[in-house]
């Protein structure tokens, strides 16, 4: 929520990364996308966007990361233009400053969550009053993971990833250690293409078969307790094809599996970032501190994170 004393000329939008607690490829759709059944989870690794109302009608972007394009191909600019066109007011302008903390091409929805933050932030800054559902619906035009990132938390996601069923869980105690080899990125389209080449023959074809899979996901207990105590593994179908062709993923999964108290270990999204779950944030933090040198020796960037019950958060000052 934005404090009532908010400076009306700028807002800070905090954009959280996500991990996948389940990623199952069901089949291929007529639009060429994959039909998915997933559980996504927001984590407290976040980018920050400063959205400054502009006197002219320009939409500009600058960031602290030279690898990021500041042009029309950036999802942030796409999201701002999409919103402005939706409300039919081309006079609206904004200068956006992005503080990028989420690694790029990592399977953590870094680009999608920035787009989500742009939509939520500009809806407020420009006084548009669109409902969350309207923003979610609009956002799916430019990316499959953006609707989830808007309200985040822990949600079941179907379709391309944009059909959301929010789980009624608001207490999260699990902690995680996340690692990524900074020397590589994985292209999501390439990961899906490779998966299709390898497993396309076994894709389900009928919606009734998709629905059986969806119901099975719905009937699972996705609470922290059930995840941690009952589950044998986290299913990420893309891991089956990305792991064999990416030694950095193999290395990451091996290191995480060997950590004391680590329970479930998986790649996130299309990778290459990988994570291990721990019973609590404190336990994850302790193991993280004791293994910082191990991650360094292996050439991995590493973070200790907690799980978030929400998506984009708005504030009116940098903290
Ligand atoms: O929607 P988004 O831009 O995130 O998707 C990136 C690419 O990943 C798509 O162009 C497509 O190649 C692949 N993809 C897919 N099925 C999905 C989501 C993504 O094949 N459900």
Give the terminus-to-terminus CA distance: 15 Å
Helix-strand makeup class: alpha+beta
Report helical residue fraction. Answer: 25-40%
The major sheet is characterized as: 7 strands, mixed
Strand proportion, as a percent range, falls in 25-35%
Level-2 CATH architecture of the largest domain: 2-Layer Sandwich
Named once each, the bound ligands are:
cytidine-5'-monophosphate
CATH class call of the largest domain: Alpha Beta
Q: Indicate how many domains the architecture comprises.
A: 2
- Global shape: globular
Low-confidence stretches: 1-6
Number of helices: 11
Radius of gyration: 19 Å
Mean pLDDT, all residues: 95
Which series of helices and strands comes N to C?
EEEHEHHHEEEHHHHHEEHHEE
How many strand units? Answer: 11
CATH domain topology of the largest domain = Ribosomal Protein S5, domain 2
Describe it.
With 319 residues, the chain is an alpha+beta fold. The protein has 2 domains: 10-168 and 309-315, 2-Layer Sandwich (Ribosomal Protein S5, domain 2); 175-306, GHMP kinase, C-terminal domain (Alpha-Beta Plaits, 2-Layer Sandwich). Helices cover 35% and strands 26% of the residues. The protein is built from 11 helices and 11 strands. The protein has helices at 75-87, 110-125, 132-139, 146-151, 188-199, 207-219, 224-230, 237-245, 247-258, 281-290, 292-297, and strands spanning 10-28, 34-53, 59-63, 94-99, 154-158, 163-166, 175-180, 265-267, 274-278, 301-306, 313-315. Strands 1, 2, 3, 4, 5, 6 and 11 form a 7-stranded mixed sheet that branches. The protein has a 4-stranded antiparallel sheet with strand order 8-9-7-10. Helix 2 (110-125) crosses helix 3 (132-139), helix 5 (188-199) crosses helix 8 (237-245) and helix 8 crosses helix 9. The longest helix is centred in the middle third of the chain and has 16 residues, at 110-125. It is globular, with a radius of gyration of 19 Å.
């Amino acid at each position: 929520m934005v404090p009532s004393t908010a400076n009306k000329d700028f807002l800070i939008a905090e954009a959280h990364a996500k991990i996948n607690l389940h990623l199952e490829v069901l089949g291929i759709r007529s639009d060429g996308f994959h039909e998915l059944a997933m559980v996504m989870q927001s984590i407290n690794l976040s980018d920050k966007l400063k959205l400054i109302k502009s006197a002219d009608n320009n939409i500009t972007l600058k960031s602290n990361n030279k690898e990021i394009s500041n042009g029309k191909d950036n999802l942030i600019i796409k999201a701002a233009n999409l919103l402005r066109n939706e409300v039919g007011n081309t006079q609206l302008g904004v200068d956006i400053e992005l503080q990028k903390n989420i690694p790029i091409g990592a399977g953590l929805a870094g680009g999608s969550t920035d787009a989500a933050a742009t939509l939520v932030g500009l809806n407020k800054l420009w006084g548009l009053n669109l409902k969350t559902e309207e923003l979610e619906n609009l956002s799916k035009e430019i990316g499959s993971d953006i609707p989830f990132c808007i309200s985040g938390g822990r949600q079941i996601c179907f379709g391309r990833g944009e059909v959301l069923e929010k789980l009624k869980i608001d207490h999260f105690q699990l902690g995680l250690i996340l690692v990524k080899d900074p020397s590589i990125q994985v292209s999501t389209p390439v990961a899906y293409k490779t998966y299709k080449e390898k497993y396309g023959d076994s894709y389900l074809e009928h919606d009734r078969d998709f629905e059986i899979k969806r119901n099975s996901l719905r009937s699972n207990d996705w609470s922290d307790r059930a995840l941690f105590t009952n589950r044998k593994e986290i299913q990420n179908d893309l891991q089956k094809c990305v792991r064999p062709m990416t030694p950095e993923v193999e290395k990451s999964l091996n290191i995480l599996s060997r950590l004391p108290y680590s329970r479930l270990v998986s790649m996130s999204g299309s990778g290459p970032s990988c994570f291990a779950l721990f019973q609590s944030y404190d336990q994850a933090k302790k193991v993280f501190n004791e293994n910082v040198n191990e991650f360094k020796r292996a050439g991995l960037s590493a973070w200790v994170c907690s799980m978030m019950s929400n998506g984009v958060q708005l504030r009116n000052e940098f903290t």
